[in-house]
Write a structure and sequence with these properties.
By secondary structure, the chain is α/β, with parallel strands linked by helices. The protein has eight helices and six strands. It has a single domain, classed as Rossmann fold, CATH 3.40.50.
């Protein structure tokens, strides 16, 4: 019998405030293109790098994410960060995930905008040591300088792979702004997520 290959597990981290169709398309393309055996969305309760803005309570974001994966058998939601105390640094998260499943190839998925900020992450070298591959989704009007990043983080280029054909110009911040302004936003979301946002009056102006 041939030796069984180690499973490839993709982890897509984010605040998902809210999770939108762009996230879903990226997740599906990443799973296919990267040959992932499993795909898990990792929701960050209190992102250390977003302290300058109000984040929707994690209970609402988690429920929206569960609605996203409800009819998608190829996706799962990981609560690894919810189950531990802050701060929630990616370096700690991936070490926990790697230790929980050491035989798996750990593929971490980020947007190209996050790639540009990677040198500023908490203990980036420890983060890179724990992952096997860093999959990057191109973003509109973003062009990371890979040579400069490699000089700052030696060995990074050997772990990076770009996911083609997923340059989707949808953002959670744009959706939040549209909700606040009363502009159409429904077409950027799954119907179930749209209904959840309306039912819970999320993203509306304060005191409305």
């Amino acid at each position: 019998m041939g030796r069984m290959k180690n499973p490839r597990v993709g982890y897509f981290g984010g605040t998902f405030d809210p999770p939108h169709l762009g996230h879903i398309i990226l997740a599906a393309e990443a799973k296919y293109y990267l040959g992932l055996d499993e795909f898990r969305w990792v929701i960050t309760p209190e992102p250390p790098h977003k302290k300058d803005r109000t984040i929707t309570p994690v209970k609402y974001r988690l429920e929206m994410l569960k609605l996203v994966v409800a009819d998608q058998g190829m996706f799962e939601v990981s609560e690894v960060d919810i189950q531990r105390d802050p701060p929630h640094f990616a370096a700690d998260t991936v070490e926990i995930l790697k230790n929980a499943n050491p035989s798996a190839e750990l593929v971490y998925i980020i947007g190209e905008d996050s790639l540009m900020d990677l040198p500023e992450w908490h203990e980036t070298s420890r983060f890179l040591s724990a992952i096997d591959q860093l999959a990057v989704a191109p973003r509109p009007e973003v062009s990371a300088d890979l040579d400069q990043l490699e000089r700052m983080l030696p060995g990074l280029s050997g772990k990076i792979i770009f996911i083609p054909d997923v340059m989707i110009d949808i953002s959670s911040s744009m959706i939040r702004e549209r909700v606040r302004e009363g502009a159409p936003f429904e077409h950027f979301l799954k119907d179930s997520v749209t209904e959840y946002i309306k039912m819970n009056r999320l993203y509306l102006p304060e005191n409305e």
